[in-house]
Structures are given as structure tokens and as C-alpha cells.
């Protein structure tokens, strides 16, 4: 299984690659920024906009009475080399939380007066060390600030312990 994560890169590699790349980094979640969910289209998972009592998808142009709540969470991560912004979508965020977005959203809205707060289940991710598989797209090469997409992650404590040497150097 260790072979899957070779080679492990430092966070600053996200900013120094010379071509579109996909690689693993080991980083600490330092913060969660903005909204952590979106209403997804029932057909294509694109973002839907509420228009009156309906939801309209800009991607596939369909309209529905409702949509699905899915995770779209921007996290700030760091290691000894740099800090970066990563975007975690539904599958990966559900791995981190262990809770489907629609369940967390429903519980959170029903028990809070202010929806802008961060659920405890997400707040507990801060300071957690995670192995992230990150994609650097062509339009992000040589950019000093960009939000990179997470396309996989691993939280197994034994595996994380094997690769967290970059986070400990700081």
C-alpha cells in the first residue's frame, strides 16, 4: 500500500510544478474557509441555484423541485514548506467526516440559529494531518495563489505517520 503514495511531495510543490500534475502531499488542515456545502443537480451534480420554489442547474439546464446537499469545502493546509488552499468535494469530505453532507446539513440547520457557523464535525478536522492527492491543472501552473482540487485522500493513522515528516519540520 505504501507504493501508492510514492513519491510524497511538500506543499510548495503545488506552486513549482512546470506542467499539469497529480501527486500526493501530507499536510495539516489549518482552516476551513467559507461555505462547506452546495445544492447539487440530481442529474449532473452541478451547482443549482434556487429560483422561487424551484432549483435550476446551470450545467445541464434542468429544473427540479429540490437538489442534493453535497460537500464542497475549501481548506487551508500547511506543512513545513508552504500553505495552500485545497478544494474537497463530496466523496473526500465524507471520508473525513464519516457523515453524508445531507445528514450533516439537515442536523446542523435544525439545531443552529445561525447557519454561518461551522459544524463541530467539520471544526474537528482542523489540526488533523491528512494525505491528499491533489491535481494541478494546466491553468494553475506557476500561479502563486490558486485553489487546487483534491482527487483523493487517506486518513489512516499508520500511513499518515509514515509520511508526516514534512509537517513535523516546521
TrEMBL record:
Residues 35-147 form the Replication factor A C-terminal domain. Keywords: DNA-binding, Metal-binding, Zinc, Zinc-finger. Gene3D superfamilies: Nucleic acid-binding proteins. InterPro entries: Euk_RPA1_DBD_C, NA-bd_OB-fold, Rep_factor-A_C. The keyword Metal-binding applies. Pfam families: Rep_fac-A_C. It comes from the Eukaryota. SUPFAM superfamilies: Nucleic acid-binding proteins (SSF50249). GO terms for molecular function: DNA binding; zinc ion binding. Belongs to the replication factor A protein 1 family. This is Replication factor A C-terminal domain-containing protein.
Amino acid at each position: 500500500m505504501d507504493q501508492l503514495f510514492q513519491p510524497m511531495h511538500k506543499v510548495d510543490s503545488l506552486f513549482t510544478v512546470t506542467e499539469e500534475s497529480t501527486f500526493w502531499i501530507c499536510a495539516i488542515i489549518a482552516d476551513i474557509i467559507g461555505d462547506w456545502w452546495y445544492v447539487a443537480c440530481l442529474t449532473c451534480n452541478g451547482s443549482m441555484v434556487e429560483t422561487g420554489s424551484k432549483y435550476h442547474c446551470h450545467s445541464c439546464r434542468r429544473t427540479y423541485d429540490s437538489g442534493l446537499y453535497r460537500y464542497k469545502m475549501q481548506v487551508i493546509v500547511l506543512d513545513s514548506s508552504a500553505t495552500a488552499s485545497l478544494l474537497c468535494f463530496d466523496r473526500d469530505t465524507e471520508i473525513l467526516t464519516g457523515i453524508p453532507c445531507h445528514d450533516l446539513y439537515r442536523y446542523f440547520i435544525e439545531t443552529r440559529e445561525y447557519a454561518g457557523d461551522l459544524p463541530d464535525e467539520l471544526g474537528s478536522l482542523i489540526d488533523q494531518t491528512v494525505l491528499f492527492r491533489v491535481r494541478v491543472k494546466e491553468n494553475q501552473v506557476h500561479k502563486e495563489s490558486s485553489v487546487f482540487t483534491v482527487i483523493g485522500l487517506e486518513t489512516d493513522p499508520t500511513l499518515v505517520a509514515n509520511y508526516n515528516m514534512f509537517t513535523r519540520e516546521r
